[in-house]
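Quick review question:
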């Protein structure tokens, strides 16, 4: 298994919630807040011309049992981020996390706290605000391209909000997906909180890590395809703002994901023709084989390749970086006939393409995360440069393949971003 694969398994294994109620709806570990003042942080401003609106929706798949909880149908939370006519200011800005999710995310032993190394209870996660207005009216102007976003294994859908808001401000409708019982926590309406079952599963004696990782990925792909199904039925749902369904161009759908979400994006693109283009932000495409087998085994998308365009964005974290260094990425590269490119952000680490790059340095300055842990999460790249590069390369790719607008950033190495190493 790669360094990142081992890290995923180790984080999930170590992140067992001390209450022993991992995975039980409504289970929340004690926040563990001390007497110290809680650290505050903020997200970078979106750079597009449009104000941003957001709304959340609970989905239930009546045709699929939950793979992690026997006896119940699969339930998901998703959020829409879209251009609006009404900018938000002050307290009108939607929260980054709802209070129940924020308390759990920042608590001792949660998957989020263990993965990112911030001090339990030291950050006011509920106080972080987005730049979006909740349930705002949809900006008129016809159909807009749709982008799905999937966070990494164990991360909540909010962990990519900075990038998601920026895309919405540039005219995309973005749908973020929480993968229930995989994400550190998923808060449902009426107070139910579903926490991750993965730490306990990885902690089982003799666990087949490769098989478990494949099940996680397949569940995420199934979740994503179900969300795609529901997008086509959205006009009948009275819980979303008027005009949202009419704004979705379901012939122009792309997907972006980080880590396990990046693996999900490309695997779903392989499995479902509705996705036209995809970006993998540092997500591996190979897993360990079954017990007793040595080596690594590429996923089916890596073995078969893609005929549609994709972008790989790696970091300088262990065996990440160039596609040459990763068996799954290398296999995908060799077997693909569609347009593809690979960029690596110099000085970055695995968290550099997420909100960790913006939020954690602020927390470190307030003592809520150590300097050593900060460097391990996001490296030594300047946060503003990492955010600008991530946004620019993601939107350049999506504009090119979903809108037919090419700014030529992806033609080769760019003097605008000398920290981005480029391969075609």
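Suggested answer, residue by residue:
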């Amino acid at each position: 298994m790669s360094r990142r694969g081992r890290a995923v398994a180790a984080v999930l294994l170590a992140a067992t919630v001390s209450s022993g109620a991992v995975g039980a709806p409504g289970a929340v570990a004690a926040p563990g807040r001390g007497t110290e003042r809680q650290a505050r942080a903020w997200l970078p401003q979106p750079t597009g011309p449009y104000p941003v609106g957001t709304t959340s929706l609970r989905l239930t798949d009546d045709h699929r049992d939950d793979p992690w909880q026997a006896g119940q149908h699969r339930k998901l939370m998703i959020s829409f981020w879209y251009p609006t006519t009404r900018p938000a200011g002050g307290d009108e800005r939607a929260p980054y996390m709802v209070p129940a999710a924020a308390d759990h995310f920042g608590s001792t032993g949660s998957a989020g706290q263990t993965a990112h190394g911030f001090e339990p209870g030291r950050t006011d996660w509920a106080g972080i605000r987005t730049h979006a207005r909740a349930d705002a009216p949809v900006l008129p102007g016809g159909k807009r391209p749709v982008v799905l976003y999937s966070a990494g294994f164990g991360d909540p859908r909010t962990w990519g909000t900075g990038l998601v808001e920026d895309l919405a401000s540039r005219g995309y409708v973005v749908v973020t997906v929480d993968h229930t019982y995989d994400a550190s926590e998923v808060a449902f309406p009426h107070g139910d909180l579903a926490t991750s079952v993965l730490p306990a599963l990885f902690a089982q004696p003799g666990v087949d890590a490769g098989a478990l990782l494949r099940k996680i990925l397949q569940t995420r792909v199934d979740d994503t395809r179900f969300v795609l199904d529901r997008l086509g039925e959205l006009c009948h749902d009275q819980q979303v703002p008027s005009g949202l369904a009419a704004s979705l161009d379901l012939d122009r759908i792309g997907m972006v994901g980080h880590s396990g979400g990046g693996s999900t994006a490309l695997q779903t693109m392989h499995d479902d023709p509705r996705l036209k283009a995809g970006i993998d932000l540092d997500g591996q495409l190979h897993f360990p084989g079954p017990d007793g087998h040595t080596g690594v085994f590429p996923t089916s998308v890596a073995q078969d390749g893609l005929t549609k365009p994709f972008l790989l964005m790696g970091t300088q974290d262990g065996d990440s970086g160039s596609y040459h260094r990763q068996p799954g990425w290398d296999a995908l590269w060799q077997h693909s006939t569609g347009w593809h490119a690979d960029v690596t952000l110099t000085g970055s680490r695995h968290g550099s393409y997420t909100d960790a790059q913006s939020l954690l340095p602020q927390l470190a300055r307030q003592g809520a995360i150590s300097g050593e842990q900060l460097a391990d999460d996001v490296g030594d790249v300047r946060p503003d440069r990492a955010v600008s590069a991530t946004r620019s390369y993601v939107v350049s790719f999506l504009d090119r393949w979903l809108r037919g607008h090419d700014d030529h950033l992806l033609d080769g190495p760019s003097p605008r971003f000398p920290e981005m190493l480029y391969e075609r």
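Why it works: The chain has one domain: 3-19+42-423. The domain at 3-19+42-423 is CATH 3.40.50.1820 (Rossmann fold).
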